[in-house]
Amino acid sequence: xxxxxxxxxxxxxxxxxxxxxxxxxxxxxxxxxxxxxxxxxxxxxxxxxxxxxxxxxxxxxxxxxxxxxxxxxxxxxxxxxxxxxxxxxxxxxxxxxxxxxxxxxxxxxxxxxxxxxxxxxxxxxxxxxxxxxxxxxxxxxxxxxx
Length: 146
Prior knowledge:
Layout (H helix, E strand, L loop, with lengths): L7 H5 L8 H17 L5 E6 L4 E6 L6 H16 L4 H8 L17 E6 L2 E9 L3 H16 L1
Antiparallel strand pairs: 1-2, 1-4, 3-4
């Protein structure tokens, strides 16, 4: 026998924390500030929890190839709920099977965005060395904590 619920609402709805456009703007602003402080030309991409692009910023003089790289770094970070650096490290250690995981990008610079233990989106940065991309991304995420 199926369980009886007092209301359909209990079984059919849920409350969800989401990343808003204002959140994305704040993250991008602080990431941009970090990039400009270091005179780094980058692309900053922010996606929601489904990997859909919410915000994209391309600083002047950034190569256009970094646009898709930044987006894919963000998508990979949210898809697997971990920084893209994880795959870069695994591959550097010889675990080449990770190259076959669909949706991964083994290049540092993609970080998931977590609010209250909920994965709500991700940021991807591309344009400079990978560890610098990650530094910019982290500055953006730190904006939500301030």
